[in-house]
Amino acid sequence: MSKAIAIIAGVGPGTGAEIAKRFAASYPVVLLARNPSNFEPTAEEINKSGGRAIGISTDVSSQDSLKAAFSKIEQEFSGAPIAAAIFNASSRPMRKPILEFSVEDFETAHGVVAKGAFMFAQHVLPGLVLHASDSSAKYPPTLIFTGATASIKANAQMSVFASAKFAMRALSMSIAREYAPQGVHVAHSIVDGVIDIELTKEWTQGMAPEAKIAADDIAESYWYLHTQSKRCFTNEIDIRPMMEKW
Amino acid sequence: MSKAIAIIAGVGPGTGAEIAKRFAASYPVVLLARNPSNFEPTAEEINKSGGRAIGISTDVSSQDSLKAAFSKIEQEFSGAPIAAAIFNASSRPMRKPILEFSVEDFETAHGVVAKGAFMFAQHVLPGLVLHASDSSAKYPPTLIFTGATASIKANAQMSVFASAKFAMRALSMSIAREYAPQGVHVAHSIVDGVIDIELTKEWTQGMAPEAKIAADDIAESYWYLHTQSKRCFTNEIDIRPMMEKW
Amino acid sequence: MSKAIAIIAGVGPGTGAEIAKRFAASYPVVLLARNPSNFEPTAEEINKSGGRAIGISTDVSSQDSLKAAFSKIEQEFSGAPIAAAIFNASSRPMRKPILEFSVEDFETAHGVVAKGAFMFAQHVLPGLVLHASDSSAKYPPTLIFTGATASIKANAQMSVFASAKFAMRALSMSIAREYAPQGVHVAHSIVDGVIDIELTKEWTQGMAPEAKIAADDIAESYWYLHTQSKRCFTNEIDIRPMMEKW
Amino acid sequence: MSKAIAIIAGVGPGTGAEIAKRFAASYPVVLLARNPSNFEPTAEEINKSGGRAIGISTDVSSQDSLKAAFSKIEQEFSGAPIAAAIFNASSRPMRKPILEFSVEDFETAHGVVAKGAFMFAQHVLPGLVLHASDSSAKYPPTLIFTGATASIKANAQMSVFASAKFAMRALSMSIAREYAPQGVHVAHSIVDGVIDIELTKEWTQGMAPEAKIAADDIAESYWYLHTQSKRCFTNEIDIRPMMEKW
C-alpha cells in the first residue's frame, strides 16, 4: 500500500500551519487554502526541514475546486490512504444584526463551513477507510473538524456564523457514528477563545499570553487525537486558554 | 395600527394545518407552502368557519419566491404587524450513508431548513418588532421554529438533515438573544417522535396512538408559547409522545 | 376513585404560592414547606376563595419528615390519586469559593435539592400512576421539578448549588423516561433569571419589570405542562424574562 | 519546593491502576481505595519498577477517612505540591426502578460520586495551586474527574447513579472555571462504554476487543490532558471504543 498522507484544509498562518507541521513530522501533507500565499511558507518550511508538503489552491466551498484538488492529490499520491484529514477552513465570525446580513453572507459562510465540510468529508472518507484496513498502520485514520464557541452557543448577532458552525458539528457527530465501526476516528474540537496569531495581535494588545490559545498546542491536541487507539476514541474536545471566561 | 396577522411557513396536512387553524382563531393567517394543494383545504376550512386565511405558493428556499410572497402579504395586509410567525417548513429527514448523498441533496435540505429559515426570519422580524411596539397587543410577538430529534442529535446516516436542523436551532437561539430585549419571543421546538398524520399512517400501523405525537397538540403548545408574557419567555421546548424512547 | 389532589413542595411567598393557587383552581392542594408561615397565607387565601388547601410543615431533606407529611396526606385524602406534584423546594444559590464551603453546606443543599427531590418523587409516583389509570382524568398526571440556570451551567463559585441542581435535573430526566410509558408526565423547568418576589425586591431596585420573571407566569407555564396530552409531553422548558442575557 | 506528587482516588484493577502507573512514570503517586487489596498490587508493581507509590485505605465518602488520608500524605510528602489529582472513585451504576432504590442507595452513591468528589477537590486544590506557582513545573497542575455516559444522559432506571454523576460533572465545571485563572487545569472525562477489565470479562464474552475501552488508553488520555499547556486547556473529553453505539 502507498504511504499514507495527511490532508489539511484551511491552512493559513496560525492553526492550520501548526497542524500541517505537526502532521508533517509523520506523513506527507497536502495543504489546501484558497490563497497560495497562505500555504506556501508552510509548505516550504516543511519541505526544507526534511518533510514533504504540497499546497493546492482550493476553494473548499466549490464542488469543482475541491474535485480538482483531489484529482491533483490522486496524481501526486496515487492510491495513498489518508491517515489524517483536518477540516480547519472557516469563514470569518462576523457579528452583526441579522437584518444586516445579506443572503450572500449566509451562503458564503455556510458554503465554507457547512457545505465545504460536507464535501471535504465525502472526498477524504474513502482514503480514511482505506487506511483503516491497513493492518500496519500505526494509528487509526482520523478526521477532525475545527469548531468554535459558536459551535455550541449561538450568541446575539452571530446568526450566520453560529448556524454554519452548528451544522458542521452535526456533520462531525453523524460521520463519527457512521464511520467509527469501520475504524475511522472522527472528532470535533471546540476552540473557545482567541488564538494567538498574527491576525489577532493588534486587537489583543495588552492581553496576557495565557489569555490566548497557542496554535501549536491546538496542533498537539489534534495529533494526540490522531494517536488514540480504536479502543479509546474521543469525539469532542474543547480548548481554551487558562484566562478564558466561559 | 392594522390588525396583526400570523404567518405559517410549511403548511401541509398535519402540523402546519393544525397550527394555522389554532392561530386563525385569533388572527388572520397567511399560509405558505410550495404546493397549493397543501394549504388550500386548510385555508378553505378557516375561511368557511369565520376566520380569514390566504395561501401563497412559496418556495422558502428561494429568495425571489419569498420576496414575492411577502409582497403579496403586504398588498393584502398593508402595514400589518405580525403577531406570530411559525417556520414549520422542512426537508425530508433522509437517512443514508454520507457517500450516497449528492451535493444537491445537501443544498436542497439546507436551502429549506437553514437558508430558508434565515430568510424567513429576515422577512418577518420587522413585522414582529412592530407588533411588540403595539401596547394594545394581547401577547408578545412570537417566532417559532419547528425542530426535530435531529436538531440536537446527529445520528449515523443523518448527516444532511441533522446538519441543517442544527443550523436552524442556532438561528433560533441567536435571534432569540438578539430580539428578546425588543420584546420579540423566539422559540425552538424539538419534535422528538413520529407525528400522527396521513403521511405516517402506513408505516406506523400497529403503533399505539400514544406512540405518536398529535399534530393539534403541537399546535396547542405553539399557541401556549405565543401567550407567554414578556416576563416568562420559553426559548426551547421538547415534545414527544408518552411511548417514545429517547 | 377519590378526587385527585395536587402536592406542591417548596411553597414560599412567590413561585410556590402562585403554583399552589393555579393548581388549586382545579384540585385540592397540599402545600409543603418547612416554615408554616410560608404556606399559611396561601392556604388561607385558597380556602377563603372556594378552593381547598392544607399546609404541612415538612423538611423535604428529612426522610422522617417527608414520611410524616405523606401519612398526613393519606389521612386527609385517603386513596386520592395525585394529578400533579411539583417539586419547587430549593436551597439558596450560595456563591463562594469552593474552599469556603463546608461539607455541611454541601449536605444541606444536596439534602434538599437532590435527595429531597429523590424522596419526594418516590412518595408521589404511586399516586401519579394511580391517576394515570383513571380514564376519567382530564389531564395526565404531572411531576414537575423547578430548576435554575445552575441546572445546566456550573459557574465559578457555584459548585455546591450547581452540583445539586444538575443532580435534580438528572432525576427528572431519568424518571421521565421510566414513567412516560405509564402515562406520567415528568418535566423539568430551567428558571433562568431573577424571579420578581418580595425577597428579590431590594437587590433589584431599578431593574425594569421585564428584567424579572413573573411568578404567576411560571405557575401558568406549569399549568400548561400539566394540560399537555399523552401525545405531546414536554420534558424540559426554559424560562427567562425578555431582558435576560444568556 | 518538594517534588510534586500525583494522587489517584479510586484505584482498583483497571482504569485506576493504569492511571496510577502512567503518572508514576513521572511522579511519586498516592493511591486511595477503600480496600487495600485494590491498590496493593499496583503499588507494588510501581515500587518494584523504580517508581514510588504508597497506598492508603480510604473511604472517599467519609470526611474523617479523607482527612486521615491527607494527613498521611502530608506526613509522607511534607509540603509537596500536587501535579495531578485524579478522582476515579465511583459507585456501581445500579439500574433499577426508582421505587426499588432505598434512600441508603442514594446516599451511598452520592456520598462517593458527589460528596466524595467535592471533599477530594477541597483537599487537593491547595496543593494544585502550589504546583501552579512553581515556575519550574513541567506541566500545569491537573484535576481530572472520571465521568460516564450517565454524566450527560439519565436513562430510565438510572436515577441514582446518573444524578450523582451529573452532580460530579457540575463540580468539575465549576471548579474548572474558578481555578483556571490560577493555572489549575480541571477536566471531566465522559467514559462512554464498557471498560475492558477483569470485572467486565464475564458479561462481555463474545464482544470484540474494539467494542470495549482499553483502560491503559484512558490513562494515556489523562496523561495527555495533564501535559496540555496553560494556553490550551481541554475541560471535557468523551471516550468510547470504535464499536460503541451512542
UniProtKB/TrEMBL annotation, chains A, B, C, D:
PANTHER family: OXIDOREDUCTASE, SHORT CHAIN DEHYDROGENASE/REDUCTASE FAMILY (AFU_ORTHOLOGUE AFUA_5G14000), OXIDOREDUCTASE, SHORT CHAIN DEHYDROGENASE_REDUCTASE FAMILY (AFU_ORTHOLOGUE AFUA_5G14000). It holds the Pfam family adh_short. It comes from the Eukaryota. This is NAD(P)-binding protein.
